[in-house]
Amino acid sequence: MAKKLRIDEEECIGCESCVELCPKAFEMNADGDKAIVVDEDCTDDCVEESIDTCPVSCIFYEG
Questions:
Q1: CATH no. of 4-62
Q2: Which backbone phi and psi does 6 adopt, to 5 degrees?
Q3: Assuming Cys at both sites, which of 18, 32, 39, 41 could form a disulfide with 26, CB separation 3.0 to 4.6 Å?
Q4: How many other CB atoms sit within 10 Å of the CB of residue 13?
């Protein structure tokens, strides 16, 4: 089973750092206040950078 990229949207503060670092995997939701995953299978290096940069540590792999 492959790992799936996830964001805990309850914890997300909408800082947009993950969207700026890795737009292939993340974007802001329709309200513009939380980040969402748009490519749960993305394994680009920018995903790890986003995980490390997230100020509330709400980005993770599941599985």
A1: 3.30.70.20
A2: -135, 155
A3: 18
A4: 13
- Max CA separation in the chain (angstroms): 32
Task: Provide the whole-model pTM.
Answer: 0.93
- Residue with tokens 């540590």, as numbered in its chain: 57
Q: To which residue do tokens 């939701």 refer?
A: 29
Return d(Cα 36, Cα 15) in angstroms, integer: 12
In angstroms, how far is the first alpha carbon of the chain from the final one? 7
Amino acid at 35: A
Q: For residues 51 and 47, what is the distance between their CA atoms, to the nearest angstrom? A: 6
Place of tokens 């800082």: 15
Q: Say what the pLDDT of residue 61 is.
A: 96
